[in-house]
Structures are given as structure tokens and as C-alpha cells.
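Appendix B, example 12.
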Amino acid sequence: MTINHRLGPLFTDLYELTMAAGYFDRRLFETATFSLFIRNYPPQRNFFVAAGLQDCLYELESLRFNEEDISFLSDTDLFRADFLSYLKQLRFTGDVHSLPEGTIFFANEPILEITAPLIEAQIVETFLLNTIGFQTLIASKSARCVHSASGRQLIDFSLRRTQGHDAGIKVARSTHIAGFDGTSNVLAGKEYGIPISGTMAHSYVQAFGGDFEAFTSYADTFPNNAVFLIDTFDTLKGASEAVKVARQMKQKGHTLRGVRLDSGDMIRLSQQVRYFLDEAGLEEVKIFASGGFDEFKINQALVEGAAIDAFGVGTSLGVSADAPFADIVYKMVRYGQRHVRKFSPGKESLGGKKQVFRFLQENGFYLKDTIGLRSENFSSGSALLEPVMLSGRMIQPYPTLQEIRHHFKANFAVFPNEYKDLSARIKYPVEVSPRLRDLQPTLLA
């Protein structure tokens, strides 16, 4: 299932349309190939998780300028009538080769390549960069949180801090791809089938005037799904009141699911609360923690002995606070019968249609990647870019979110731990094939 509200071709930068008009005037209608990739790693990052392809394919399939779009463009007085008439008939008729969502990849490796008539390939640039860039950024940060949590439950709590409602929906989906167990986002739960999770706010406890009254009420309303927020007034006193209510629940045949910490010294408090719960015979009650967590804070808390069973991860995740953007680009690599490349200093690109080949160690773990030409084959390397769209239509039904999630889990399980390190000291080896490398000097003309 997916949220598929059509954005339309005006979700673009103006220069995509002015270039298209220039191509139209000079009848540049030959087929072009563009490659979309991330040039550099953000600080302390050394891998990415592909996400956002589904939204891209649905938008490409539905690409068309409606009467309202044409009227708006006409009113700008920028475009001639013959070009606007051309846009009225425009549909995306190209091919797409892409990494499957959930695939781990690295800097300079194509995430996808578009091959289509030049104008079609050009005007979709902004949407592709916006969609793939954001969702990949969030999925990549989520994977780092999953690694830091070492099997503990993770919940996306970011909705109230994401930068717009659409971002909140896409964050929930991207985190779930990368291994998060649920989200607080109810709409994402409805649309994507992601488990939804939530407890109570401090205002709930304040409304009842005290912990015991609030916890008792909540347990009466949700006897099989109660988690108490215990730090509104005094955390240890809140824990004691939670124990009292949990015992009452047991007498009625119900079990308190957990207690939540949202402030203070999480390491010390979690240890003390764990002691209270265990002393009361409530070993099954889990300790949830929220409040400023990301992969770094999760890692630090667990290394220092925090007794936390699950984390709610919010603001830092939803805006990818330590790396709020990716250096993602969309570059022409072939036009007509000739390969092309960009030579700008510091922004060079590799010409030619490409493929990414992954080589594994004997134990099945990643060994290295090679970026090569699409026409190349390596007997021991697996080709990662797959054809997903031909002549403007998806080749087959899109994988379910759970299938994508399982694909990521299988990828991540054989990705060596040294490359998951949060400091990113060791970079995964990515090579350029001899054929692709030897092609580049010939493109000077």
C-alpha cells in the first residue's frame, strides 16, 4: 500500500522547463540517460540505504500536464504556444534501472538511471532528487539507529518535528524499511500497515493531578496495552506508583506492558527503575525511553549500562539532524549515440550507462563493489541495478513494504560490522572497472 497523491510535473525547478523549451526549439529529441547518485558521504557516514523508488515510479507513470498546469505556464509569458502544445501531449515513455529499495549502497554508485527522450528525462530531475534524496537520508540514519540498538525495539516518534506532513509520512515508511518496529504516526499505520505505538503525555498525568490516578485510569481504558510515563513529577516516585497499579492489574488478569522515561539521567534512572520492577516481581514489564535519542545517544546509553528495552526516536531522526542533506545529483551520462560526462572541478562525473557489481566473501559477507558499464559482466559479482520500468510502465507489481524490509534485513546482516561503525573510520571499498575508467579520457571531445 502507498500514499499516491499525484504531484504533477510542476513540482520542479523552473530551469528544467526552460531547458526543455530550448531542447524543443532545437528539436533535441534523442534519447538521453541520466544517472542519479550521491557524490560524498556526510560526516561520520559511510553507507546509505536506498529508499523512495516506489513514489518515483508512480509519479513517472502518471506524468502529464493538465489544463491547469498549461494555463499557469502560459500566464508566465515565458513559453511559446507550440511548446505548451507539446507539453499537453507529454508522457513519460522511458526506462528505469534502479537499486531495489532497502539495498545498501555507497558514494558515487548509481541509485537509479533514467533512459528516455531528453525532455522527459530532464523535467523529472527535481522530483527524483527530492524524493530519493530525503527518503534515502532517513532510511540510512534509521539503519544506524537499528545497529546501535542491538536488537532492542525502536519506534519512530518524529512526526511532530518533521518538516511538513508529507515528510512525516515518508519518515515513517523509511524508518520501517530500515528495521524500526513501529511509528507513532497513525496515518502511516493506516496507509502502510506499519504497527502504531504510543503511550501518554505529561499533560495526561497532570490532568489527573498525580501518577497513581493517571495510571489507574489508563490501565482501566487500555488494560492490555498500558505503558505509563513515570517522570512527570518525580521519576522514582512515579515508578513506585506504577508498581502499585501493575499489581492491581495482575489481580485482574492483566499485565503492564511497560513504563517510559522521557527525561533525566537515563542510565541511572533506568537501572533504578529496573530494580524496583524486578523487586516487585514485574520482570516482564519493559522500560521504554524517549527524549533526544539518535544512534549516538542510544549507543552511549547501552555502552554505559542503561537498562532500556526500547527507544522512541524522534527529532534527530525525522530531520536527520547530524546530516540534514545528501549531496545527491542527477547527471547526463549519454545522449543519442555518444557517452557524455561532466568535467567541472570537484564535480566530475563518469560517462556511460552503468551497473554496480557486488562481490562477496566466501562467508557471504560483502567484500567490495565495482562500478562498471551496463554492458559488462563479472562471473563472481552480482549486478545490483535492476530494470523496473520499460517504456513508461512498471515491469511488475511493486514489492510490499514488508518485502522491502526483509530485503534490507538480509542486506544488513551480511554487511560487515566495521563499516557500520558510527565514526565511519573505515570506508567500504568501491572500485571503477577498467573498461569504465578507460572510457572516460575518450569523452574529452
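The longest helix spans residues 125-149. The chain has a mean pLDDT of 95.
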